[in-house]
Design goal:
By secondary structure, this protein is an alpha+beta fold. The chain is about 40% helix and about 10% strand. The protein has one domain: Serine Threonine Protein Phosphatase 5, Tetratricopeptide repeat (Alpha Horseshoe), CATH 1.25.40.390. The strands form five sheets. The chain has a four-stranded mixed β-sheet. Strands 2-3 form a two-stranded antiparallel sheet. The chain has a two-stranded antiparallel ribbon with strand order 4-5. Helix 9 packs antiparallel against helix 10 and helix 9 packs parallel to helix 15.
Length: about 500
């Protein structure tokens, strides 16, 4: 049991400290046996942005993805392993045998650092108010990390699944702490407890969106309660976040200008497509800066997803779906393929942390699902968002959404959510739609692709692959190396 968490202790420092202040050259860790004596050592764990969540789920698994045989025929030389195809064909159990799982590893490293903060905050030298602040941040970091892990490696939250396997709950830095998986109910109870403590934070604003403030926590709670079906609470949390948004503002896509791409005859949008790390973390729409991506994050849209956009007036369709999109296809390729490109920083990245547009959409959906639906207020939120996403020359009736019934309004909100939050958020939504109180929003995903045999792509035959509603494959497998490192204490998901 020591081996996995000794590794996490060492990795935790590496993940968080590439660009820390000088005093972080002696960052405390259990692995290094360095004493924690001053609050600045703990603040250092929080001051360095670590915003990338390395995960290919959103890239290849959802119905937003159009990883077609035609695309593969042009791009197959770029794929060095079978991981994308296991996602795309829903053979996700085979992912367990990959060399490592960077999402699991990095999130447990974050949890270790949160525990380090919580164990030492009261004991170190430093300002008492600052201690209370960083303790609240530590609780939020741990809660967010466990929520992210639960929505990757556990079945969706609902009453029927409460006794299903949850997560190994690391509450301390003690490397002898049990690795037995808790139940899903116990996992969420622990997240609840952490969020309650996080709400004690007194900081109302921050110019570092990877740090935590009151609006950050409320923004996340609007997501958290929406996913749990506690709609009145989701509305209340969203209201608090939006009321105190401060620096967090919607970007008007009319202000994003075009330039020439490296493919002759096509345009790109450099503000979105050539980001530095600093530009990503400071994006004005973030309540909490996190992005999802993978070394092979090829965000190729499906025809179904593209059909949701107005090709003339919707600036998301015109500016985020571009022909170069960092897909790296050669200029001499027989086909030119669209790709979704929100940020390009090292690899294509999509916002996964809470943004102001997500909070607006969380609120709009919760308003329509709550006991006393508020249709007009929900549609007004859509209008406020769409004004920043549609061409300024578009007619008012194009931007404004109308709906005669509550169900029709809810469908409009979910359509807008898919346009605004594709790929990464789509996977989370598909999971929760399968267990919520309505049946008409359930999604069965179907992909057409070549046959996969022993990890190899057989281009001689094409098959249809289906992920049914409520599949146990909604939970990704835990890497076999992590299970082995726990001496078999961590149990694998059943498929």
């Amino acid at each position: 049991m020591k081996s996995i968490f000794t590794y996490l202790c060492l990795l935790g420092g590496a993940l968080f400290c590439n660009s820390c202040e000088d005093y972080l050259s002696e960052l405390p860790s259990k692995g290094a046996n360095q004493p924690v004596t001053h609050i600045d050592q703990l603040i250092g764990l929080l001051n360095n942005p670590n915003v990338r969540e390395l995960d290919a789920t959103g890239s290849f698994l959802t119905d937003d993805t159009g990883f077609t045989t035609e695309f593969y025929d042009e791009a197959y030389t770029f794929f060095s392993n079978s991981e994308p195809f296991y996602y795309y064909t829903f053979e996700t159990d085979k992912l367990a045998s990959q060399a490592m799982d960077p999402l699991w590893t990095s999130l447990y490293a974050t949890i270790y650092n949160a525990n380090l903060i919580l164990e030492n905050a009261n004991e170190v030298e430093g300002d008492p108010d600052t201690k209370e602040q960083i303790k609240a941040e530590g609780h939020f970091l741990r809660a967010y990390s466990y929520w992210r892990l639960a929505n990757q490696y556990c079945l969706p939250y609902c009453e029927a699944n409460l006794n299903e396997p949850g997560l190994p709950l690391r509450k301390t830095t003690n490397m002898e702490e049990s690795l037995v998986r808790s139940s899903l109910e116990e996992t969420y109870r622990f997240i609840d407890e952490d969020l309650t403590e996080a709400l004690k934070i007194k900081v109302t604003t921050t110019d570092q969106p990877w740090r935590v403030s009151q609006p950050t926590i409320q923004a996340f709670l609007s997501r958290y309660y929406l996913f749990r079906g506690e709609y009145e609470k989701a509305v209340s949390a969203a209201d608090e976040a939006l009321k105190n948004a401060g620096r967090v503002q919607l970007k008007d896509y009319n202000s994003i200008s075009a330039g020439m791409s490296f493919i002759p005859g096509f345009l790109e949008f450099p503000e979105m497509g050539n980001f530095t790390e600093n530009q990503v973390v400071m994006w004005q729409e973030f309540f909490y800066a996190k992005t999802s991506g993978n070394i092979q994050s090829w965000y190729v849209p499906s025809e179904e997803l593209l059909a949701h956009y107005d090709p003339t007036n919707d600036l998301r369709r015109r500016k985020l779906f571009t022909y170069n999109s960092m897909l790296l296809l050669p200029e001499t390729a027989n086909g030119i393929f669209l790709g979704y490109n929100f940020f390009y920083w090292i690899t294509p990245q999509i916002p996964s942390g809470v943004t102001i547009q997500e909070v607006m959409l969380n609120k709009a959906e919760a308003l329509l699902r709550q006991t006393n639906p508020a249709k007009d207020e929900a549609l007004e939120l859509l209008y406020d968002l769409r004004k920043h996403r549609y061409d300024a020359t578009a007619e008012e009736e194009i931007i404004r959404v109308e709906a005669a019934t509550n169900d029709e309004a809810l469908k409009k909100v979910l359509e807008e959510r898919r346009r605004e939050l594709p790929f990464t958020h789509r996977w989370f939504d598909i999971r929760r739609f399968a267990v919520n109180e309505t049946a008409w929003d359930d999604v069965e995903i179907t992909h057409s692709f070549y046959a996969i045999t022993d990890g190899a792509v057989d281009r001689s035959q094409v098959k249809t692959y289906t992920l049914p509603v409520g599949s146990r494959r909604y939970a990704m497998p835990i890497n076999e190396n992590d299970i082995s490192a726990s001496n078999g204490t961590i149990k694998q998901n059943e498929f």
